[in-house]
Write a structure and sequence with these properties.
650 residues, alpha+beta, Immunoglobulin-like, TIM Barrel, 21% helix, 28% strand
Length: 650
Amino acid sequence: MHQWIYHNSHDLYFRNPFGAVCCNTLVELKLEITSDYPIDSVVLRLWKDNSEERIDMHEYERKGNKVIYSAKIYVPSTPMQLWYFFIVYQGNRVYYYGNNPENKGGVGMIYDYEPPSFQITVYKEGFHTPNWFKHSVMYQIFVDRFYNNLEEGQLLNPKERCHIYYRWYDKPYYRTCSKTGVIVCFDFYGGNLLGVIEKLSYLKELGINVIYFNPIFEAPSNHKYDTANYKKIDSMYGNEEIFKQLCQKAKEMGIYIILDGVFSHTGSDSIYFNKEGTYPELGAYQSKESPYYSWYKFIEWPEKYECWWGIDTLPCVNELDPSYMRFIIYDQDSVLEYWMKRGAKGWRLDVVDELPDEFIKAFRKKMKEIDPDSVLIGEVWEDASNKISYSEMRKYLLGEELDSVMNYPFRKTVIDFFLGNITSYDVHKNLMSLYENYPLEVFYSTMNIVGSHDVPRILTILGEAPPEETLSREEQARYFLTEEKIQLAIDRLKLVSLFQMTFPGVPCIYYGDEAGVEGYSDPYCRATYPWGAEIKELLRWYKKVIGFRNKYGVLRTGQWKSLPVDDDIYGYVRIVKNNKDIFGQPMEDNTAIVLFNRNRYRKIDIGLELGDDVRGEFTNLLDDDEKVQIEGTLSISLMPLEAKLFMLHV
């Protein structure tokens, strides 16, 4: 229902330009008021850099009892988040118009108290993310679980205190320390970097352009987030020469390597802390004279120290300690430079909300000096444009820190939609909110995930497995989808993966998702890749839809328009016109229409107004026999759990 006070931040008439803007941009904001009673004044209230500014809005247009008010502002010359709402004075009443209660942008609401604000992300002029990255498809590899190329499953340099699974397909499970009862992760299958090299041809055939590795530096655990030596490949994975060989062979195939940087903490069993006395170096735990002592946050040396989530094997570091900054970033042989000179094309920063803005800025600046075309990704689980951590609004996306973030909001939205938890209109609101808040360069570079090492497998979720909190760990370990549920999960995952491959951003496949791996959260989501036992139907589908993305530029950097159609049907249009993509890069004109029916039981007929930009004969790439003539409108039927991908120029 249209309110008597109205503003829509997604409508160019009411906010121009749309979305995030660079510094010093002129932005026009309009407010529509429909009232039979005179309005005394309208004020635009801005909040920037912890200060308030109130701007009188002027009458822009009047039609009967409808008046449009306007204000033009230059956004700040410094990157920041800018916030606004409207105040309407009428007689002895004061009305406020602000963001909707969900803070999703778009159409707001009338309040009789100070409302939530609309957001404008103001980013640094000249900010851009690597073009090659926007055109990529990523693949995440947990090395120990991907592939062991050694004969008879032998292990490369097994550690003294580790448990070896002698069958590649054994289910992973937790072990606890007999002394402390704490979970330990010293169980290994034997995957290694030589195995990744051997499977590069598989990844190339799949259509992959980027490999993102979970940590590969020396560490006691299988997950390697407890770094022991930042400048050494874990010996169970290989060595520096094998890493360089991997980077070179991958590059020859058009595949880049991204490393996982864990810089908020180290392992306690490390060169730097050396609590176990494993290393000859003098660690911070052993002596205050250690060169690493200033890195750590001791409360009472040596036994009491700050550690990540209270886990005493993961002592936190002071990231801004000059010695630590030099070691990680600034030294001629810094960790950052050491691995980039050996072939890494970028980094994913683990728990980036634990890292100070100054550290991230310094890391990015140095990384771009080494390779201007490298990419920096952050682990953020929320909307990264307005993320608050430790009571501070973070500056991840303002042009001086991250190029990309792990898109967990995308993951949640897509899963919730296909499971029937939200409607297509909710999908529209959620995705438009990201589209509005993220700089365009970031929106088209987000790491669009549906699986990762920290969440249950996507097949398990889409197969409607019982919520993991309702099962014991033993029950989770034994749980497998029934044949009927597996087929349901496959049918849904086909739609989900098509969504990934046709949506702006960089789709990322968690190893084995394309092959049908099941499992609840860690450790079960970290099972081995099922070589020789893949779900062939699913694997063929992934190759097909990745192929579409790699073939048609419009699916990568074409314009994007959201289409909520029906509670159960969501879609979008992708357009390239005037032979340029959305960033002005040369690209052939094309138009794609993507539609999904998530309903399991109902065929749905729809009629769509697509506008004058959408005209011509379109072919459904998922069914070459289906062709439709579109002249601005489209009338079709979608069967249960069916998607359509119409392309103008095939």
